[in-house]
Amino acid sequence: MTAQGDSAALAARPAPATLGRHGRLSTLEQSEFDIAKAYLPGGALGGNALAEDAKFVFAEAKGARFKDTSGNQYVDYCLGSGAMVLGHAHPAVQQAVIDQVAKGTHYFAYLNEPAVKLAAQVARHVPCVEKLRFTVSGSEATFHAMRLARGFTGREKIMKFEGAYHGHHDYAQVSTAPKRESNFPEGVPDTGGIPKGARDTLLIARYNDLDCARQIAEANRDDLAAIIVEPIQRIISPQPGFLAGLRKIADDVGCLLIFDEVVTGWRLALGGAQEHFGVMPDLSTFGKVLGGGLPVGGVGGRADVMDQCDPGKKGQEGFVYQNGTLNGNPLGMAAALATLAELEKPGTYERLFAIGETLRQGLRKLLARHGIDAAIVGYGPMWHLLFGAKGEPRDYRDIQATDGKKLVAFDTELIRQGFFVLPGNRRFVSLAHTDQDLEASFAAFDAACRKL
After folding, report:
1. Which tens digit of pLDDT belongs to each residue from 160-204?
2. Radius of gyration of the chain, Cα coordinates, nearest whole angstrom
3. Does residue 218 lie in a domain region?
4. How confident is the model over 242-260, as pLDDT tens digits?
5. Where in the sequence numbering do the catalytic residues fall?
6. What share of residues in the chain are helix, strand, coil (percent, to 5)?
7. What pLDDT digit, counting tens, does each position of 74-123 carry?
8. Which of 186, 318, 344, 374 is the most buried (most CB within 10 A)?
9. Is residue 294 part of a domain?
10. Cα separation, 438 vs 272, whole angstroms
11. Strand pairing of 256-260 and 224-229?
């Protein structure tokens, strides 16, 4: 179906008078819930599930809105966990994928034309990237970045920061969302099934605390392969000098600095957070925005580090294996090229940042009008709501000190009102959010405030 056909189909479906479910549940959607409950653990596709009276099944999406299979409409601030910076079903991305489908959908991880073009585009935009490899997800990207760092340095340990999310693998799921405070540098596993050997290679530091990071790095200088950091950790912005300080610590102890730009890449600037903040890592990981809604990730950086995975070096000491059946899949590569072409247009990031600020300011006014003790925080195209916060958080423990239970309850009410967020988690805006979308969102937020 063409982009125009998709748009017409979406418009042809009768829209509800207001956003949200408000009791409207079709027999089709109920049957889909029953099937999901029978065959999917928890009736879910991943690690998140919505409350019974707020859950839904996606049917179709366009721009900043989507509908469920009961025909209810929502304004989307989850946006595919941040992937849809252009909005849903963007015509240019759709057309690129359609064109590529006609040429072939999968060739295995050998060279293909859109992958070669995209590699040059990424290297042109991202300051640290001299060479790169594509993956299918951000989790794979951080896994391979850590492996590359270990292979390059001959060391085993990785420093990460309490509350940082670097994917679902064993070397990432430590102190991502700990229920008890980390005893720095000891971490707290977030899931069962992590081998002790993997857990023991992770050192945990406090974000925005250079003294803590330096002490841990110095104490482990002979074993530390890399420091991995989200330049903006979830919704916590770096304090002035923090990222530059990590660069110096890495240089001083001889380890690599990895920027996990799965979220910040192409969201803050064409060159990501490293361009925006002016700090150069050794390696950078990508995902989400880059794929334009298709499964695309990557890791890139210094040529001497990346060249460890040259297949011509198989069997040699220092070779680092990196592969994947769907790496560089041409559909994802085509979607990524179309996404970058849109993001390269003049004024794109100024507009994206402006949308984020307009939303934050409008929500703050509503909280003040209702006398609700909560803060709207965030930076650029990202935002969050924290009950009981006294301003922008500096680290994970600042967020833990807020009322998380009230946040999840309020977020669930937002979803009922047609204002879609992932309860308890950071949220995003897209270039597709219009003034009308924002006004509808303010009305839904106001209704949720009255319920609260």
Report:
1. 999 999 999 999 999 998 877 778 998 889 999 999 999 999 999
2. 22
3. yes
4. 999 999 999 999 999 999 9
5. 165, 260, 288
6. 40, 15, 45
7. 999 999 999 999 999 999 999 999 999 999 999 998 999 999 999 999 99
8. 374
9. yes
10. 26
11. parallel
DSSP character at residue 394 = -
Mean of all residue pLDDT scores within the chain: 94
Q: Total domain count for the chain?
A: 1
- Give residue 142's domain range: 107-343
DSSP string across 242-288: HHHHHHHHHHHHT-EEEEE-TTTTTTS-TTHHHHHHT---SEEEE-G
Does a structural domain hold residue 424? Answer: no
* pTM score, whole prediction: 0.93
pLDDT of residue 450: 95
User: Is 19 in a helix, a strand, or coil?
Assistant: coil
Give the CATH number of the domain where residue 273 resides. 3.40.640.10
Encoded tokens for 303: 């040529």
Are 188 and 257 spatial neighbours (Cβ–Cβ below 8 Å)?
Answer: no
pLDDT tens string 443-452: 999 999 999 8
Residue burial 82-103, b: 16+ Cβ < 10 Å; e: rest = bbbbbbbbbbbbbebbeebeee
Euclidean distance between CA atoms 212 and 175, whole angstroms = 16
| Residue 440, token pair as written in the block | 């509808």
Would the pLDDT of 355 be above 60? yes
Residue 297, phi-psi category: left (phi > 0), alpha (psi -120 to 50), beta (remainder): beta
The CA distances from residue 236 to 146, 378, 379, 390, in Å, are 23, 7, 8, 14
